[in-house]
Amino acid sequence: MEKPDPRRKILFYLNPESNDAERYVCDEIDRLPQGERGKVWRAALLAGFALRKQDPRLPNMLAEFLNEHTTFDEMITLMQAVFPAEMKRLESHRPAGRTVQSPQEKPEQETPADETRDNARNMFAYPKKDSD
Fold first, then answer.
1. Nearest 10 degrees: CA dihedral of 85, 87, 88, 93?
2. Which among 96, 111, 129, 107 has a CA at the least distance from the CA of 23?
3. Strand ranges (DSSP E) for the chain?
4. pTM (predicted TM-score)
5. Other Cβ atoms within 10 Å of 48 Cβ, number
6. Mean pLDDT, the chain, as a whole number?
7. What is the rounded distance in angstroms from the CA atom of residue 67 to the CA atom of residue 87?
8. Torsion of CA 30, 34, 35, 39, to 10 degrees
């Protein structure tokens, strides 16, 4: 008897018209060489599950913030809201070359404000941009 194949094929669609995050991912995928795409998709899925292992809400929250203007500081702010004590300990270990960018310095977004993104910002007390 033949042993069943334990591998999983993951198949889903991204719609760049549905939200900023999916548009950003589709644009990034288009920039990747064809031969690297599978490795990047696999790594992204595994990274999402690594984040989910720490807190099941984390991949969804990070995905809501994702767009072409997402900053490292926005990600850190979100992580601080989810893991305040752990992130406090890591403050002195900020990667070299990273600078704090205030929300006023970010490029203007030309897309309409996303209600979920605004709600997440409000929930984590992240300042709302004037242009939103």
1. 150
2. 111
3. none
4. 0.65
5. 15
6. 82
7. 23
8. 40
